[in-house]
């Protein structure tokens, strides 16, 4: 064989590309959709026998997305060419039930009757003449979800023999809420700027938008609110509607609807009206016309999220109206097009309250049953504001005639922001499985939001996004696990966190138990660790002012009392904690009687909520055998130690992790160790000024005087709320 100079150069160039690709570090961009080649030859070949042919009954943009994903995933994982053939006897056969009698014959009547909208069926059929993996659904998006599920089985090295998996989503609307501003900044964002480039839309479609849609579809998310709840009326200008249309066009092929936030004063700011009174006919006319304009551009537009009469945002109360009036006015405009209103219950009045945690209940419960059928009341998981730990919101179980949806925060505003490893799935699971006792024991929050407790048809869940322009999407690599976990729990709010962590680690890191088990343990324990070094025993809202970065239990000078830390911990020479019992603010009385019985007595109240519901003397002896002050010291020190344990455990994984990724995570864990100690020392130094007690001598003493911690200043902390 004669080797020409040209062919030699070509060969060398090919080898160079292969070499470069093999040396490329893991940057996290691919999220849990890495689709790395399966190195186990025996396993890979067993998959190849069943999966190298694909046949789809029918075509549509969503089905094309499913077929494309299967081709990408199978080609990478199997290292073999995937054929799109007319052969139906072997390989993957996918379709929508009811569109082909030939395909329908492959599915039993029992399975057909149990499949629901967006659900999927995965089954294997083997015989002498055929060897098929069947993906079936009642709609196109179900086929896409089933395709992702099949690829996940391969990523996790699961058997695909004798497959019979049926899954239906338990919650109808599964949304990400982006607190992204039109200028590219992200409120409470810790992963760079907004991924939406409004200036270049609609002409330029960043490939990242497509990968974003793929990632969300892979975990069952079917809606994206692309603008901040602290809304900007500019989004309703005609050119911005066209920009939003461009995003909606991308999302549609992955079964994702686009939603916008509606600034209540938009009729004034964009319509030139003198009022935004929801009962004013001209205001109603403006919204009706604006909604029609949006649907003309985006026929499958999902609807609006509204933050009103909260933190200075305009709302119906400015016109002596109520939340019912405002929500129903918008709902009436959206109803002819099938749109919905998600009206946030995160409200508090302009007047300083006796206890802010009571206000949402007081404002919304009187209107139970009076909201339109296409209105969801969006309720944060707890009554204050995404704390490391807080009790469930009293609205859950208190409005049986109204559709309530959950709002979780995936971005860790109060849990270490962009630097701390905190497996949020544990927090989400804790909330979802907490009993409201609304209809007796077993009335858990998950049953409220999936509609089963009160037979509600319109159900939803929202997660405040932690996504930005960082190459790995979430800044802190482990933030990806929070995004993934949210999607899985939105699909099925009864899942177990360890199961979710196992999935994510296998898809993202490795199936090797030497890697899998330690990382799952890190994720599983890290939330409790964070609570210990930040807000143990029910403390809450003691973070730095405005940016919420780091400890600030001394914060006392703000324009509102309920924006300070001292408002919440109420430390004095007698003790610490917020009395919310019958003798205090009576916030506990907003819950069901069985719930009240759990927390009303200081002697039996679970320690994790003791200081949330009670003002406890410093020398009060707890069930642990320690007095309160000593227990507080032990908790803070244990949390700091456990943060260091996370770093120690991670260091044992160095031989198994990509070098760049290993160092990236190690640096963040070092920051977490440093900041956990900072939290410990700053908080104990401050609270000691009230307790007048010594930190137990066996514990490490604060490194600096209290004045040092109080003097620290962070003017450029990320994610600070913009001032409109």
Describe the structure.
38% of the residues lie in helices and 10% in strands. It is built from 23 helices and 16 strands. It has helices spanning 5-23, 41-51, 61-78, 101-104, 109-114, 140-155, 207-218, 238-252, 266-269, 281-297, 323-334, 359-364, 425-432, 445-449, 479-491, 497-508, 513-534, 566-569, 593-599, 610-613, 628-651, 659-691, 706-711, and strands at 53-56, 83-84, 90-96, 120-126, 131-137, 164-167, 173-177, 223-225, 257-261, 303-306, 340-344, 375-380, 404-409, 460-464, 575-576, 616-617. The chain has an eight-stranded parallel barrel with strand order 7-8-9-10-11-12-13-14. Strands 2-1-3-5-4-6 form a six-stranded mixed β-sheet. A two-stranded antiparallel sheet has the order 15-16. Helix 11 links the parallel strand 10 and strand 11. The termini are far apart.
Features of this protein?
single chain; 724 residues; alpha/beta; Chitobiase, domain 2; TIM Barrel; Alpha-d-glucuronidase, C-terminal Domain; 3 domains; 8-stranded parallel barrel; 6-stranded mixed sheet; 23 helices; 38% helix; globular
| Residue windows where pLDDT falls under 50 for at least 5 positions | 6-23
Question: In total, how many beta strands?
Answer: 16
Number of domains: 3
Shape: globular
Averaging pLDDT over every residue, what do you get?
94
State the distance separating the first and last CA atoms. Answer: 73 Å
CATH class type of the largest domain: Alpha Beta
Q: Give the structural class.
A: alpha/beta
Question: What is the CATH fold-level name of the largest domain?
Answer: TIM Barrel
Helix tally?
23
Helix fraction, binned, reads 25-40%
Going across the major beta sheet, what is the strand order? 7-8-9-10-11-12-13-14
Task: Give the CATH superfamily of the largest domain.
Answer: Glycosidases
Percent range for β-strand residues: 5-15%
For the sheet with most strands, the description reads: 8 strands, parallel, barrel
Q: What gyration radius follows from the Cα positions, in whole Å?
A: 27 Å
Q: Which architecture of the largest domain per CATH?
A: Alpha-Beta Barrel
